[in-house]
Design brief:
heterodimer, A: 184 residues, alpha+beta, Heat Shock Protein 90, 7 helices, globular, B: 126 residues, alpha/beta, Transcription Regulator spoIIAA, 6-stranded mixed sheet, 33% strand
Chain lengths: 184, 126
């Protein structure tokens, strides 16, 4: 049975949700989300240190989505009514922990790269992450899209927590990549 | 050389580069999806400036947020400044961070360890 993205999303969108979105990941969407979350964080009177971390991690998460969402073939998009550049974003707060969930389609060939990358990041200590960040910063060129391969490393460094992920088979060669980031 | 003066936006910083005073300033937020577009003219300007710099160049970087796409471009800016410093001109980079913002201090220290230019970490106390 294929993974039901819509049902999955409705399960996420409950409890202490600050913001939930599913649909096209565009520049306008990113701008709106950032503005809305910033206002909400100011209103709940969150510690400025945490507020900044949440905002920083959110920026990277959204831009990762923006750069890496895989477009589904038309037939699949129509079948389940997915917008183009489809992705999901849910920001929730459970007790003192902020959780940022992002989800997007990827093809099977991306899975190994992503898994290796995240497992590697999760295996590193704080100092090792710092070294990895500095190495990539200094040695890797920006892609034409402006991505630098630093987003996940930066998220791991700023949160100090492990990245949690799943890949669920959706249809044909497409999988739904779900990433949970925790800010404590 | 014409100075650069760019007003900040919610996603891009305020920029002031002036070859007459030798003061280079980047302030605010730098979180565009693609930062190359924004930073290319700044790097080009510095390349030109590096041909005939002032005796002393003061760089003030005061960022509230910057994304990883910008972090590479900021490194490119600093590499141009390193060239000027290598050619025996004074360059100082003042890196400002808010008092509780350890991440921003650490980001400054990352650059300091890569770039051979004197850095000064300046805490902004409210």
């Amino acid at each position: 049975m294929s993974f039901d993205v819509q049902e999955y999303y409705s399960k996420l969108n409950g409890g202490d949700v600050i913001l939930a979105f599913k649909g096209s990941i565009t520049t306008d969407l990113i701008n709106n989300v950032l503005e809305e979350v910033e206002t909400k964080l100011e209103n709940v009177d969150e510690e400025s240190k945490i507020r900044k971390k949440v905002y920083n991690v959110l920026v990277e998460s959204l831009q990762n989505l923006y750069h890496h969402v895989e477009e589904l073939p038309d037939a699949l998009k129509m079948k389940d009514k997915f917008e183009s550049k489809f992705g999901i974003l849910v920001i929730a707060k459970v007790q003192d922990t902020y959780k940022i969930t992002t989800g997007n389609f990827v093809t099977s060939e991306k899975i190994k790269f992503l898994k290796d990358r995240i497992d590697k990041i999760n295996s590193l200590s704080k100092d090792e992450l710092k070294d990895m960040y500095k190495f990539i910063l200094n040695h890797q060129k920006l892609s034409a899209k402006g991505g630098g391969g630093l987003g996940l490393v930066d998220i791991a460094r700023k949160t100090g927590n492990k990245l949690e992920y799943t890949f669920q088979h959706y249809a044909e060669d497409y999988y739904f990549f779900n990433l949970d980031v925790f800010i404590t | 050389m014409e100075p650069i003066s760019i007003e900040g936006t919610p996603k891009t910083p305020t920029v002031k580069f002036d070859s007459k005073t030798g003061i280079i300033e980047i302030k605010g937020r730098s979180i565009p999806e693609n930062s190359i577009e924004f930073y290319k003219p700044l790097v080009d300007w510095l390349e030109e400036y590096a041909k005939n710099p002032l005796e002393k160049t003061t760089v003030n970087v005061q960022l509230e947020y910057f994304n990883t796409s910008s972090s590479k471009c900021i490194l490119d800016v600093f590499k141009k400044l390193e060239t000027i410093h290598k050619a025996k001109h004074d360059v100082i980079i003042n890196w400002y961070y808010e008092e509780d913002d350890e991440d921003m201090l650490e980001a400054g220290e990352d650059y300091e360890s890569i770039i051979r230019v004197p850095f000064k970490m300046i805490e902004i106390v409210e």
